[in-house]
Amino acid sequence: MSVLSVDVYHLCLQILHVPLSVFVILGILTNGVNIVVFVKQGVTSGSITWALFAMSATSFLASVILLPQVVCYYAEMVNADVYNACSLISTATIFLHFIWNKVTCFFTVYISVERAICVVRPLHVQTYMKLQYKILIVLSLCVVTTLAYVGYSATLKIAWVPSRVWNGTMVFLLSQTDSSPLFYLLNFIVNSLVVTNVAIVTIATSAVVMVTRLNATLRWRESVSHTARPAHPRKGSKPKPSCKLSSKNVELCRTVVVITLFYLACLLCSHLPVMTFLVMPGVSFDGENKMLLDVILTIRFDLDALYSSLNIFFYLKLSSNYREIFFSLFNSPKLCGR
């Protein structure tokens, strides 16, 4: 027996699709702008730049793939006859969104780890691994994730089931083979538990390392600046503020810390509903708690879209280089600080 009634189920979806619609449209627009800015900045100008560009591209694709979910939901409310078509579209796009969202996760982990290493060993970061090897590792992880999702989805089939309520047939996603539960469990363990938990721990650890190291560096530079400051400075001379000593590296690390911590917050919130799989029976596409699964997935979609849509505001606030290129797109020298 389902833990959700039909009325509660529909109410939850109606509430959750309102912010989802806003975040999806905003995510498409803002990540499109991010892609243009990073291209103008030079995608190959640094390992962080290409990673931010790739993360914006995957976030853009994840938002685009979520758009049919929103359109189909409201289309069904207006005209119930489009249910079957919308069900097919939603089924085709849901796994693609999972894949692109997981790719975004890998890029976020890469950015946090790379910056943490750069802060701890700034003179040796380029000797550990070349850029092409870093890209190869991330792409390999993406391929493994894709295969994990494809393996499970390949064991499913779309079934047309007669319905007296609809006076016709309805589309359902059903298990096709005896191995479907095994692939479902494997996909859940690998992608939802192992990968996500490792990502959470890695991002949190990297953020702590970056914040601790940067605070120690800034305190040391502050003490050096204070010690080296003359007791009676010459007239007209200005003491050099310690914040200027940190310059580009501190700005970049601060941007990475904020972006990754924001992603970590969204990931933790979206990961908590996923844990219901461990305690609730029948939470699957063809299980007795299918309605609960729909609500859980919509919550995840909301959080994924939230992260994708708000990145641009962190870039504008924290990165002077991004801010300059962004405002130059609108031919506003005043906003660029020129």
From TrEMBL:
Annotated transmembrane regions: 20-39, 51-70, 135-162, 182-211, 256-279, 291-316
Alphabetical keyword list: Membrane, Transmembrane, Transmembrane helix
Gene Ontology annotations for the cellular component aspect, listed alphabetically: membrane
Disordered as annotated region, ranges: 225-244
InterPro entries: GPCR-Ligand_Int, GPCR_Rhodpsn_7TM
Main location: membrane
Alphabetical list of Gene3D superfamilies matching this protein: Rhodopsin 7-helix transmembrane proteins (1.20.1070.10)
Localization: Membrane
Domain G-protein coupled receptors family 1 profile: 30-315
Basic residues compositional bias, start-end: 229-238
Name listed for the protein in its UniProt record: G-protein coupled receptors family 1 profile domain-containing protein
